[in-house]
Amino acid sequence: MKPLFTLLFVFLTAGLFAQDPADIFHKTIPADSIKSVTLDIAETDELSVVNWPGNYILIETSVLMYNGQKNLMRTLKEEGRWDIEPALSGSALTLTSVEKLRPVMKTKRGLTEDEVTVVIYLPEGFEGSGTSYARPD
């Protein structure tokens, strides 16, 4: 009888340790010829911009899916749900979220939504705030 209770306890508590899937994606862009950067990131994303000693721009996107599954996250990543695309025009770079509106999804587990944090690492020398950054002349 004791092994039965132990087995039951293990199965009941195993669900408590299940974790929502999370991942971090990186993209780098050479910054040698870039004089200004404009950000057009989805409003629902938490955005921060940090100066760092590197010589390229690093985009770090962290995604946490609530009530989701790892294979769903992998599929959505492959479809570009959280992609940020660079567009270079002369020496001006614009970073744009591919999907600005990311609807909540309904799965067998219930509603699945994602929490996205974007950190843009700009080389030292870029100054600005909000959505516009530039190197002083």
What's the short version?
The protein is of the alpha+beta class. Helix content is 16%, strand content 49%.
Shape: elongated
Rg from Cα: 20 Å
Helix content: 10-25%
Give the uncertain stretches in residue-range form. Answer: 7-17
H/I helix tally:
2
Domain count: the total is: 1
| Distance linking N and C termini | 79 Å
Provide the residue-averaged pLDDT: 88
What's the main sheet like? 5 strands, mixed
Structural class by sheet pairing and helices: alpha+beta
Number of strands: 10
Approximate strand percentage? over 45%
Sketch the topology as an H/E string, one letter per element.
HEEEEHEEEEEE
Describe this structure in words.
With about 140 residues, the protein is α+β, with helices and mostly antiparallel strands. The chain has one domain (about 20-135). It has two helices and ten strands. The chain has helices at about 1-15, 70-80, and strands spanning about 20-30, 35-40, 45-50, 55-65, 85-90, 90-95, 105, 110-125, 125-130, 130-135. Strands 1, 3, 4, 7 and 8 form a five-stranded mixed sheet that branches. The longest helix is centred in the first third of the chain and has 13 residues, at about 1-15. The radius of gyration is 20 Å and the shape is elongated.
